[in-house]
Design goal:
two-stranded parallel ribbon; 36% helix; 3-stranded antiparallel sheet; 7 strands; single chain
Length: 240
């Protein structure tokens, strides 16, 4: 799932596991897209899913130091695309009502002001953090779309921004190799409340979930730290 203007954009995918005696892999089939207003609306609908991957920080620092997973993700992407990994806010920022307050709390706790991009995600981060427990994290895990696209693109960063026409064309091309029927199902997706890059990010999150289920994913960093709630601060990094 990926955050969108209307709330959350969800891609539901089934995977048939194949074992050719050398390695396990999956053949994917895109089932449907839907939009939910809140994170809590999604949880009961996905109780039977093997794994849910979400593009939102899970596990937050209290300000003593930045999350290692964010640093590792930026190191992989390098260059201009590294900026797509926003520093996750510290947990104390979640109750702030405005940017100035949140940024002040961040500076007092960590020595760094909160970015505008991170503040824009604060409500969705709050929704996830309010619900997340170590038990729930067994089936709901964090991804970053640009890390997943890097893996899907033969470990090459896609240079174009995801909101540009060339960037969306590149992402569509490599997703189409996995989800051959995605265009016809996109035609049946909700009409309002999301952008095409939200759909592509949700799709690559679903692919990451499948790869993780068959053991073809690692975590950034390899040995994630726990936050004060006992949540792992990690980003899944799939292997193609």
């Amino acid at each position: 799932m990926d955050g969108c203007k209307a709330g959350w954009f969800v891609a539901v995918v089934s995977a048939m596991e194949i074992d050719d005696s050398r390695e396990k892999n999956c053949v994917y089939a895109l089932q449907e897209f839907w939009v939910a207003r809140t994170f809590n609306e999604i949880l009961p609908k996905t109780e039977e899913f093997k794994l849910v991957c979400v593009d939102i920080p899970i596990g937050l620092s209290d300000g003593d130091k930045p999350r290692e997973c964010d640093l590792a993700a930026r190191k992989i992407l390098r260059g201009k695309r590294a900026s797509s990994v926003f520093p996750a806010p510290i947990r104390q920022c979640l109750r702030a009502k405005d940017y100035e307050t949140a940024s002040k709390i961040s500076f007092e706790r960590s020595g760094k002001k909160l970015s505008r991009q991170s503040f824009a995600l604060l409500d969705k981060i709050r929704q996830v953090d309010d619900s997340m427990t170590p038990v729930l994290q067994r089936r709901v895990r964090e991804i970053h779309p640009e890390i997943s696209f890097w893996a899907l693109n033969d470990k090459k960063t896609i240079p174009q921004n995801k909101k540009t026409v060339p960037g969306q064309a590149h992402r569509h091309k490599i997703l189409k190799e996995i989800f051959t029927d995605m265009d016809s199902i996109l035609m049946e997706a909700p009409i309002y409340g999301y952008a095409m890059d939200d759909a592509f990010d949700a799709l690559v999150a679903a692919w990451t979930a499948g790869q993780t289920v068959v053991g073809k994913a690692e975590t950034l960093p390899p040995n994630p730290e726990l936050d004060s709630k006992g949540l792992r601060m990690e980003i899944l990094c799939p292997v193609k």
